[in-house]
Design goal:
Layout (H helix, E strand, L loop, with lengths): L11 E5 L5 H16 L5 E5 L6 H16 L5 H10 L6 H18 L5 E4 L2 H7 L4 E5 L16 E4 L2 H9 L7 E3 L12 H14 L4 E5 L6 H15 L4 E5 L4 H9 L1
Helix pairs in contact: 2-3, 2-4, 4-5
Length: 255
Amino acid sequence: MPETDSLSSADLVFVYTNIGRGHPSYIDGVVATLKSNNPEINYYVTDVFSSGTFLTRFAWLLIRQMYQFGSRGGMITRLYNRLRDKTGSGESSRLLKTILGRDIRKMLVHFTGPVLVAHPILASILSRQNRVVYQHGELVFPVEAAVDGCLATLVPTQETKDSAIKYGIEPARVIVTGQALEAELCLDNQSVFTERLKRYKSNKPLCLALFSSGAYPPDHLDLLWRIVSSLSKSDMKLSLFLGSSIRKLNWFKRK
């Protein structure tokens, strides 16, 4: 699937928010899969930081920072969830969404093909104007992720789809895709799966990989620490992925 520099020649547009670890990676996986399976489709890639006014870029940078702190409770969490609210309730939410969406809506106002996004704020911004395909890669589907007006909402499991329907998304517009995994993790996955089953049955020590959220919610870090502490008392091995925060890494080292 050839990437094009011209929006006018594109059949499909991918819009990145570059917020968090998972959201961008979901789109990476779709691009890689389509490039392999549908080379005849022209696609155009952009992100919310690559163009537009200083005010718009600054607003998205603010959202990125809010994501980092948005799971820690308090006022920032409430504001971040308000911004993700499908109804856009509250004047501050509508005002900020107007700022966030002004340039990207202007760029895509005449584009009639599908626009794939992986963040509910961006889906909400574009769903009234474009044919939005919103990829929700997480297994959990909170009410803030329910965006009206999308052409399709992609979810990993039937349970996730049931939650989306519960929050008002039309069943026909919710598509179960299976869990979104980075392509490199899927190479030779059948033999890896088979070898893992053999290892389980052998009673030999296992190696476990633990991943932190880039937002570092306290409950999540506490759970990670309890798992690490438990494993350290056994003969298990572990790999702990802590994102880019040196401070959090040092916290675990001190513990």
